[in-house]
Design brief:
mainly alpha, 4 helices
Amino acid sequence: MNPGWAWVLAGGVAETVWATTLKLSDGFTDVLYSILTLTFLAISMYFLNRGFRAGLPTGPCYAVWVGIGAVGSVIIGLICFGEVLPLAGWVCMALIIAGVVGLNLAESE
């Protein structure tokens, strides 16, 4: 396994963090959360770039990064903000995960 995937995984986690702090920034009116948002946004992009520089293919690399951020943000919303995900939302989240896995399997052939 290419060690670049560790960078992409870390970048996806950082993406989840910046999406969460963006919500907490209240439209960039809370200075601390605004700074955290911009910091984790930069970290997330840096980690994604490290994955690219490690030789990972663009499509699957970006899909994994975005998928982690999307699914992670939904999970944080459910746990921390009391958001509710209807059945169709769970199905769509499963499709995101299946699509990312499928794209990586197709790329490895």
